[in-house]
Structures are given as C-alpha cells and as structure tokens.
Amino acid sequence: MMVMKRPSLRQFSWLLGGSLLLGALFWLWLAVQQQEATLAIRPVGQGIGMP
User: Fold this and answer.
1) What is the pLDDT of residues 1-51, one digit of tens each?
2) What span, in angstroms and rounded, lies between the C-alpha atoms of 15 and 21?
3) Domain of life of the organism in this record (predicted)?
4) Which residues, 6+ apart, have CB-to-CB distance to 39 below 8 Å?
5) Of 29, 49, 27, residue with least CA distance to 37
C-alpha cells in the first residue's frame, strides 16, 4: 500500500462505503437472529408448520 500524506477522497469514500456495508450486514444479521428467535417460540406464525 502506498504511503500518502493525506487520505484521498477515493480512499475516504471506499472506507465510508465499506463501513456502511458492514453496518448494514450486521443490522440484517441481528434482524435475522431476532426473527429466528420469534419463529422458534411460535413456528406457525408465518404459516410454515412442521408436518
């Protein structure tokens, strides 16, 4: 990696975009965990029942 005196706008935008993407993925993962927890309590809530 080249050493620069100051981070360029492109590097800053990549860093910001990557952080937002990681944050969104983490938020989605938490939402899925919460959904699995509620589905484990009442599995027929979404119309998907075990035979």
Assistant:
1) 555 567 799 999 999 999 999 999 999 999 988 877 766 555 454 555 555
2) 10
3) Bacteria
4) 45, 46, 48
5) 29
